[in-house]
Design a protein that fits this description.
By secondary structure, the chain is α+β, with helices and mostly antiparallel strands. The chain has six helices and four strands. The chain has one domain (9-137). Strands 2-1-3-4 form a four-stranded mixed beta sheet.
């Protein structure tokens, strides 16, 4: 995995998932002035090009974070990392979540991942409306 050309990390999300799109909007709305993340769908060219094909099948199909150091975080570890990059109370929430044992965190994460399409919908052509001010942060 090659680190991004700028220092921002990449948040990969399921482009077919309504919950994932809401989470991307959440991050956009709560990021501080540093704007830590760029965004790319798991079904997109960026994910295909940056993550080795053999590794893609073993990864979670919801949200992943490629850190600026080239690490790939998934499941609850990805969300704890995301929360810790947000300002204020969200950083504290991330720290508190990190205190929960990973197997328990991942069990809750797995449950939400299994029901997300039933609750939030699945569309093959789900395309978020991206404000022009942040459009450059979305990768194909």
């Amino acid at each position: 995995m090659t680190p991004p050309t700028d220092a921002r990390e990449i948040l990969y999300y399921d482009g077919h998932c309504g919950l994932c799109h809401r989470m991307v909007v959440f991050v956009l709305n709560h990021e501080g002035p540093g704007r830590a993340f760029r965004f790319a769908p798991l079904q997109g060219k960026t994910f295909q090009a940056r993550i080795p094909a053999g590794h893609q099948t073993s990864l979670s199909d919801t949200m992943l974070v490629e850190t600026s150091g080239g690490s790939l975080l998934m499941r609850s570890d990805a969300w704890i990392h995301i929360l810790r990059q947000l300002p204020g109370a969200w950083r504290i929430v991330g720290g508190l979540a990190a205190a929960v044992p990973r197997p328990l965190r991942d069990m809750v994460y797995g449950f939400v991942a299994r029901v997300r399409y039933r609750v939030f919908g699945r569309r093959d052509n789900l395309c978020p409306v991206i404000p022009s001010a942040v459009a450059a942060r979305f990768l194909p």
